[in-house]
Structure of Cyclin C-terminal domain-containing protein:
Amino acid sequence: MRMEAYEADAWEANSAKALAKGVAELSLADYAFNKYMPSLLAICCLGLADQMLQHQKPLDLKLSDYPEGVIQDCLDKLHLLVSLNEDSLPLVLPPEISDQCLHLEK
């Protein structure tokens, strides 16, 4: 959907996808995420990736049709997961994305 949007940025889309994939991989090891539908988890991973990478044109999470409270709950849990696994996350990311995330944390 992002690439079909007006003025889509391919680099932003690809970097968000790579980071979201890493966050999703971490979530597979945590039973707290079993209660979420895969599509909800995917959209929230992309939303969190946009936040972490400070993208100018983040994906509109409302496109998912999930209630805002459910999205926020999932985002909050993902944010906590990333915070608790800040040493592990870079190990599952491409180096260019990992370097960008480390740069933002400082």
In short: The chain has one domain: 10-105. The chain has a mean pLDDT of 85. The longest helix spans residues 10-27.
